């Protein structure tokens, strides 16, 4: 086996491992990005426990031939990078979105968020989601609001009876 072929197989295995080990990743359209901006993006991602790798599309398609659906494979065209994280997918999306808005370069072709395939158009929705803590707080509020209203409804007649008894007492 030639040395070049062995390197390609190692890279293909690494791409497969990246897809297997991370349940959140985005395919980034990595075109026309200057080296200085690339270094800046990598630094921002690294500081937040995220990573990005530029990949060869043919190697990626070969490595992932059975693991991802056809509609996802269509996104492996042109210069492509994989941005991934092991922790918060919304945080990674925010970093990429802020970088794209600030520098007017890059784009997200598609992604896999916690095992669900998303199209590039839905990326902004994920980037604008609140943090996990904020979302849990909202859910808690939405669950408690009907109970609070129910208790207020039951409390109103009791308050009326109390004030009516107080008025009767004052008249006597």
Q: Could you please describe the fold and organization of this structure?
A:
This protein is elongated. The chain starts with a helix and ends with a helix. The relative contact order is 0.13. Helix 1 (3-21) crosses helix 3 (57-63) and helix 2 (35-47) packs antiparallel against helix 5. The protein contains seven helices and five strands; from the N terminus they run H-E-H-E-H-H-E-H-E-E-H-H. The chain is of the alpha+beta class and 172 residues long. The protein folds into two domains: 3-129, Alpha-Beta Plaits; 130-172. It has helices at residues 3-21, 35-47, 57-63, 70-73, 89-103, 123-127, 132-171; strands at residues 24-29, 50-55, 80-85, 108-113, 116-119.
Keywords:
single chain; 172 residues; alpha+beta; Alpha-Beta Plaits; five-stranded antiparallel β-sheet
CATH topology of the largest domain: Alpha-Beta Plaits
Percent strand equals: 15-25%
Secondary-structure class = alpha+beta
User: Strand order of the main beta sheet, please?
Assistant: 2-3-1-4-5
Number of helical segments with 4 or more residues: 7
**Which residues form runs of ≥5 with pLDDT under 50?**
none
User: How many domains in all?
Assistant: 2
Count of strand segments: 5
Shape: elongated
């Amino acid at each position: 086996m030639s040395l070049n072929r062995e390197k390609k197989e190692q890279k293909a295995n690494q791409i497969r491992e990246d897809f297997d080990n991370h349940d959140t990743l985005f395919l980034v359209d990595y075109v026309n990005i200057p080296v200085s901006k690339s270094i800046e993006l990598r630094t921002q991602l690294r500081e937040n426990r995220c990573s990005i790798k530029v990949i060869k599309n043919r190697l990626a398609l070969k490595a992932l031939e059975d693991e991802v659906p056809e509609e996802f494979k269509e996104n492996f065209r042109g210069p492509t990078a994989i941005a991934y994280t092991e922790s918060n997918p919304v945080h990674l999306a925010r970093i990429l979105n802020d970088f794209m808005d600030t520098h007017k370069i890059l784009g997200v072709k598609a992604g896999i968020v916690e095992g669900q395939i998303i199209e590039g158009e839905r990326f902004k929705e994920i980037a604008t989601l609140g943090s996990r803590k904020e979302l849990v707080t909202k859910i808690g509020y939405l669950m408690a609001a009907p109970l609070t209203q129910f208790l207020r409804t039951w409390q109103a007649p009791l308050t009326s009876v109390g004030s009516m008894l107080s008025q009767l007492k004052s008249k006597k």
